[in-house]
Every structure is written in C-alpha cells, then in structure tokens.
Amino acid sequence: MLSTKNRLKKERFNLFVKRFFANRQAVLGSMMVILLVLFALIAPFITKYTPLQIDPAHRLQAPSSIHWFGTDNYGRDLFSRVAYGGRVSLAVGLSATMLTALIGMVTGLYAAYYRLLDHVLMRICDGLMAFPDILLAIAITAVLGPRPVNVVIAITVVKIPSMARVVRSVALVVKEQTYIEALKAQGAGSFRIIWRHIAPNTISPFIVQATYVFALSIILEAGLSFLGAGVPAPNPSWGNILYDGKIVMFSAWWMTVFPGLFIILSVLGLNLFGDGLRDLLDPHTNKANK
Amino acid sequence: MQECLLEVKDLKTSFYTEKGLVTAVDGVSFTVHSGETLGVVGESGCGKSVTAESIMRLLDESATRYEGEINYKGKNLLKLPEKEMEAIRGNEIAMIFQDAMTSLNPVYTIGNQIAESIMAHSDLNKKEAYEKAVEMLRLTGIPSPEKRIHEYPHEISGGMRQRAMIAMALSCRPQLLIADEPTTALDVTIQAQILEVMEELKKELNMGIILITHDLGVVAEVCTHVVVMYLGQVIEEADVETIFSKPLHPYTNGLLKCIPQLDGDRTKPLFTIEGVVPSLDDIPPGCRFAGRCPFADSKCRKEPPPLEEAAYRHKIRCWHYEEIQRQGAFEDVAIPS
To answer: What is the model's pTM?
Structure first.
C-alpha cells in the first residue's frame, strides 16, 4: 500500500516539474525572483562598504571598479545601499503578502459561506477599495508613523479586499458543487467543509493573487519610502534612494537608474511568475493545452 | 425484520422566489421499509430530487418552506435541530448523487475522502480508517482497491467513481440510502454492475433504498415499489409488478408506452406523450396532467383529483381510472389528439 502511494506521488511530482519547466513565463519569472533574493541576501557580504558609511570626499561618483553602482550625495556606496534596500523590499513584501493572504483567505471563505456576513464584509472591502492604494497607505502610515512595520500594516490593509474577493469568488463557485452537497449529506459540519474542502479548491487563484500582491507591495513600499512615509532615512530603501536621486537625476543618473531598475525587474519577475503559475494551475487552461 | 424506516406524510416543499412562493413538492406521501427499494419515477422537474433533498434537509433553509412530516423511525426530520440532523446524515440516511465526477472533491484521493467520512463518524484512527476504506471499496467490486485508494477522482473511470461514492455513502452502515439517478451518467454495462452492487449491499446491510430515476428499465430491474410523480405530486403508487402490468394512471401508461419495444413495429413512429410539463409557477387548475391526457374532460380540467386508494397499497390520482380500467381503454389508446 505504501509503495503505490509513493510511486504515484513521484509520478505526479515529475509531471508537475515537467510542466513547470515547459512554461516560459514561470521559469523566467522565478529565475528573476530567485536572482533578486540572492542579490538581497548575498550582496551585502560581497561589498566592503556598508550602506550608512558616509564619505563626503567621494560624493556622487559615477559607477567604477571601486563603487560598482557609484556613490550617492553623501558618498555612500550605492551598491550596498541598493542591496540592503532589496532586503527591506523583500522583508516588507513577504510579511505584507503573508498577512494579506491569511486575513484575505479567512475573509473570503467566510463571506462566501455565510450570506449575512458576506454583506458586512464586502461593504467594508468596498469602502477600502474606494481609496487609491497609495493614498490609503499614506493615510495609514501618517497615523501610525513611518516605520517598516507600519508599512507592512498599511499594505496589508490596502490589499486585503482584493485577496478576499479572489478567494470569495472561487469559494462561491466551489460551494455550489455537488461534492459540497454530498459532504453535507454525509453529515459534515461547516468548519470541516470550509477548511478541508472549500479552501484547498481556492488555493490556485489564491497563490497567483499572492504573487501579484507581493509585486504591488514592492511598488507601494518604494512609493511610501519615496514620499517619506515608509522607511526613514538614513536606512536605505529603493524608494528613498530614488528620492535622494531625484534632484540630481540628470547629472548622477546612477542614483535613479539602479534602484528603479531593480524595482522594475522584481515587479516584472513576480508578475511573470504569477502569470506562469496561473497558466499552470488554472484547470481551464489545462484543457486547452491537452 | 421489515421495519418502517421512512414515512413521508403530505410533504410540501416551497421556495421563496422573486415570483412568489413556488411549490416544488405538493403533498407527497410514501413509506419505505427496510429491504425495500422504492423507485421514484418522473420527468425532469417533477420534484423527485427536491423530495430527496427535503428528506436530507440539504436545501437552503432560509429560502425554503417545509410543510408536512418526514418521519424517520418515528422522529420528524423537519423539526430536528441542525446538530441532530447532522448526526443522522451519513450515519442513518445516506445519499448518492448523479454525477460522481462532481460528487467527489478533485483535490483529494478517493481513499482520503472515504477515510475522512469514516473518521468523522467513528473513533477509528487514520490507518484503521484507510483499511476500512479499502474494505468498502472491495465490497463495491473495485479490483485492487488497495492501489485505487491513492488515486484522484480524475484518474479513475466513471463507474469506479460511482462505486467510490457508494463506498463513501455506505461506510457508516446507514439504514436508508437515497440514490438520486446514480446510473444515469453511466453506460449500460456499468449501470447493471452498479445496480447489482446496490442490491447486494442492501441485502447485507438490510437497508431501504429510495431510487430516483427516469429510467423505467432500471425500475423494473431493482425496485420493489414505485411512486410516479408529476409536477410535484404523486399520481400513482404501487408495487413494481402492478405498475408494469396494471397501471391505472394515463401518465404511467404513457410512460410505459414510450419505451421502445424490441419486437415492436418498426414502421410506426415512436410513441410520445403530447405536450410539455407546465411550469411550476403556472400550475393549471384541476388535474395537472389534464392538458396532455387523452381521457381528460371538463371535470378534470376544473377540479384537482385527490389521491385515492384503488386497491391494497395501490394509490391513484385520477377522476376516471375506474372507467378507463373497465373499458380496457389503455390497450386502445392510439396517438392522442
């Protein structure tokens, strides 16, 4: 009995791996994300400069063999600043995504299952969605104060409605399936039905949405830091490096180009990964490929 | 030995809709004893499935109104609180559905789902539940069940899925099984096997079965008693031999005549019952079948006939059944005008 189970599991895993690598978007996106993560984790060890090290004698130097990305207006090595900024983006992005995913999933599932609760929850979500993302995020950090933790909270609050909606719409469809009725006919209670049976069937669009939320978190965090409502100076974040570089944009191009490039590449990578995952996980696209 | 498991008394199930109260099941009564297979026959939309779902109380309680009684071993199921109803579902009364593909959760293996059902209703641990699941699958006639339990619903065939469904439903030894068109989606050879499985399990567990179907061939094969429904009402009820040899209702007779005969005349067109079933929100006054009945007269169109007992355990809802029977008119009925 055990060997059949393991054999089948291995076959299915190999099949998934094969399909994954056949999907160009998924591969490209995941490679970009992995490179970004590696950069953020390892790069600080390669450079001998720290992100806060001021060196006014060597302000605004172009990229060279000593300072690979050049220096900023305080003479700080841009490479290490961008690397540490990457850590901030990743940490904030990951935390915000996980928090959003958790609360969004719970909200979506219960809204789909209980009609009365649905009205209340969805009206709250409507209210939150009425605000443009960045404005709402600014308002929240303005109240709570400019710190990475508060950036996480702000992004989470802004993004919960979209996650809840995605989960809710799939859960509504799943709820009407015959197997849910069959489960009720077997005497299953609502907790078991919601968490053991409806939730796993919402995982695919949920994961895809999570990657999009991650991408948006990077943009929001950079935006907030740019406006001074996120990571406070002198700690580096791609957003506040951009802010420092704004004034000298045409003379010291490296100060805007490098953080900007990293923002673009990470968001692009995450979006590609999300699109690739969606193609892999969406059962409807499956049929088209077969 | 033969206890009365289920007594449906004057069941009325209505739904609250934008158009008002729509009554899908209008005064249905029947009984099921252990060891019996009650066939519920009728066209699509006549209320068969709603009746079954009413018994299990699977309908949306906020939009449904129940009247009458459904007595399971003396307890009125319509009056039970939800918690007690949950205890009955699966344990005492089980239901299997038409399309086994959508009746199984696609993200779990069939072994996982059967074991889950077993664990929910008993104290067995996971390993024991899996072993029992293998046994249940073996009982339904699946070869090599110990290998099959690790497969997903989309990896097995329709017949096997239906057997897995049956295994899941019967894993807790219910007393009453409601099967809602379990073989409609299967091909004929598998159909025969599934029916055989159900028959054997019925004998072994001494269950009662309610078999909902529109296939009279299936009814003839396995049912002991038959209830014929039309537009939410029972129009005839009898044991299976009587229904097939001496039907009293024009509708039942029409249904029987619709079955193509192997030795029939191939030059003649196939028999059909003229007309269509009226919509539920536009129920005609008088007898509901009057619009399509070759024997209908003005009384039929004005007054709805009551359900009468024509003979021992043979009920009929028709004004003119005695006259029709006396004239032997069923033999003469040609294509009605």
So the answer is: 0.81
Quick check: helix, strand or coil at residue B166? Answer: helix
Separation in Å, CA of A121 to nearest CA in chain B: 20
Q: In A, residues 33-92, which contact B (CB 8 Å cutoff)?
A: none
Name the residue with higher pLDDT: B265 or A82. A82
If you write DSSP's letter for every residue of B214-249 in order, what string do you get?
S-HHHHHHH-SEEEEEETTEEEEEEEHHHHHHS--S
Instruction: Give the model confidence (pLDDT) of A235-249 as tens digits.
Output: 899 998 999 999 888
| Selected residues 111-170 of chain A with any CB under 8 Å from a CB in chain B | 115
Most B CBs within 10 Å: which of A116, A178, A192, A203, as the mutation test of the B interface?
A: A178
Worst-scoring range by mean pLDDT, A280-289, B21-30, B45-54, B261-270?
A280-289
Dihedral-angle region of residue B76 (phi above 0 means left; psi in -120 to 50 means alpha; beta otherwise): beta
Judged by CB atoms closer than 8 Å, whether chains meet at A182 and B56 is answered as no
A115, A178, A196 ranked by CB distance to B99: nearest: A178
For B80-108, the three-class secondary structure string (H helix, E strand, C coil) is CCHHHHHHHECCCEEEECCCHHHHCCCCC
Residues A26, A27, A29, A32: what is their CA dihedral angle, to the nearest 10 degrees? 160
The ipTM, to two decimals, is 0.79
Interface touch B120/A200, C-beta < 8 Å: no
Tokens of B67: 């009247």
**CB spacing of A182 vs B97 below 8 angstroms:** yes
Question: Do B94 and B208 meet the contact criterion of CB atoms below 8 Å apart?
Answer: no
- Tokens 């909270």 — which residue? A153
Residues B45 and B216: their CA atoms lie apart, in Å, by 17
